[in-house]
Amino acid sequence: MKSLCVYCGSNFNGDPVLRKAIEDLAETMASQNITLVFGGGSVGVMGIIADEILKHKGKATGVIPQFLMDKEVGHKGLTEMIVTENMHQRKQKMADLADGFVILPGGFGTLEELFEVLTWLQLGLHGKPIGVLNVNGFYDHLFKQMDVMVEHRFLKQTNRDLVFNETDATVLVSKMKSFKAAPDEVWFRDRNLT
């Protein structure tokens, strides 16, 4: 695993537990020569993870659309900055550059990115690991909702199990390194999820 795309918030709520988790993830990635691929911003959790990676002498590749660069939110000290025309190109480029995906706390955009790459994995469009760094129970309700989807037969347990849910960055990255994609590829043939 040479690179991880980190999806996270463009805001930071000041939580010291989250700050420590970001620092631990950055240290884990940098110590294993795993390049950070992220949204290229200098603000919020995005800015913190990039700063921490760089502090540990790691590599950080930002991917940002031109309209956000025009708003001067792009990080100025990255190893590499890729500017795209729009959000769709940004997301595709980030996914293409990454060997896996880590999700930190964030808002609508972070959830949208998580479920996009998770859906792509379920459809067999990629075989890359997806891991949630579930800081302080931030995503507990989201995982409960996934369980409700399984219970109501809108999601197969096999596909529900495709995403890692961990509280420790080192454990998460270790599990992601040994991931083998095994989505249920007959979802479109078998409409009965029992």
Description:
- The chain contains eight helices and seven strands.
- It is an alpha/beta fold.
- Strands 4-3-2-1-5-6-7 form a seven-stranded parallel beta sheet, sandwiched between helices.
- Strand 3 (60-65), helix 3 and strand 4 (80-84) form a beta-alpha-beta unit.
- Helix 1 (16-31) packs across helix 2.
- The radius of gyration is 17 Å and the shape is globular.
- The N and C termini lie far apart (35 Å).
- The relative contact order is 0.16.
- The mean pLDDT is 93.
Short description, anyone?
One of its GO terms (biological process) is cytokinin biosynthetic process. By secondary structure, this protein is α/β, with parallel strands linked by helices.
> What spatial form do the alpha-carbon principal axes imply?
globular
The overall strand count is 7
CATH architecture: 3-Layer(aba) Sandwich
- Supply the number of helical segments: 8
Q: What amount of the residues lies in strands?
A: 15-25%
Head-to-tail CA distance between termini: 35 Å
What is the element string, with H for helices and E for strands?
EHEHEHEHEHEHHEH
Q: What is the CATH class name?
A: Alpha Beta
Keywords: Cytokinin biosynthesis, Hydrolase
Organism: Pedobacter frigiditerrae
Family: Belongs to the LOG family.
GO molecular function, one term: AMP nucleosidase activity
Write the layout of secondary structure elements.
Layout: E1 3-7, H1 16-31, E2 35-38, H2 44-55, E3 60-65, H3 66-70, E4 80-84, H4 87-97, E5 101-103, H5 108-122, E6 130-133, H6 140-151, H7 157-160, E7 163-166, H8 169-177
Parallel strand pairs: 1-2, 1-5, 2-3, 3-4, 5-6, 6-7
Helix pairs in contact: 1-2
Catalytic activity: AMP + H2O = D-ribose 5-phosphate + adenine
Pfam families: Lysine_decarbox (PF03641)
GO molecular function, one term: AMP nucleosidase activity
